User: Fold this.
Amino acid sequence: MLRLASFLLLSATAVAQIPLPDFTSTFSSGATRGYFFTAPATMVVRALQVPDETNKGAQVVALYRLTAPPPQYSATVQVTPVFYAAVANTDVIPVTPPVIFQKGEVVAVLGAAGPTSGTISNSYGAGNYTSRVAGQPITLLRCLMQTNIGASNGVGLMSAEGTSSIARVRMFVIGQGEQVTYGASTAGGTLKVSDPNPPSISYTGQFQVVPPGTNQGAILLLSGSRFSAPTPYGELLVGLPFAGSFVLPTLPNSGSPVAIPLPNDQSLLNVVVTWQAGIINAPNLTLSNAIEWRIAN
Assistant:
């Protein structure tokens, strides 16, 4: 696998994805949840994205710079975001211009799937979560606002809430690996991001292959660029020629992880890898959506 990676294309800029806990449940309410941490070094936030397990097809998100952690609920602090967005899609949202945080500043983010008024869906994961940024450890702790942030463009009263579940918002920063999905499958299963495991050197990058049902395994295609071309098996989404292909055994309905240990090899920095699965249900083969990796620290 690593020999194959040496043939892949280089991207111009490495973007970090802060590791997040796995999804555990959805909290649907008129309130917004998120997380905060103290920046261990200078960091630049380039993009945000709310996972959408409930298929709302929209998201609201706000990024904050604080001088101290928010007070524990029911105490509050008035906050105004340095970036706010509400979009009618589930794509990665560019933070324009990028927001620079200095060492010691508190970074907070709130975000949920859904509209700017009424009920929204918070993607919960384990609280008090050990993550990393800029090569240094951080702890993600829960923060909240008791309103839909879309009603006030993110302005409102924020609190912390101990080690309770955080609401997961993907935060992309210069410095670590990134993985994003693209394209779609008509019937060929799904590649899903593994939020705790972005592709960073010295760590294991991972994603999930989930079949649509009965199958006899999958062919995993590996390339160095995105692509789009119709085929009798669905849309081909990884570039030609393939850097490699691998066969996976029969997949359970819950899916199977694909885990790739990445060594501490500086030559892998900024390498782009694209993945797509061909799900086998003999005599048929159907193509999944795709995932793009950008390998970094």
The chain has a mean pLDDT of 91. The longest strand covers residues 284-294.
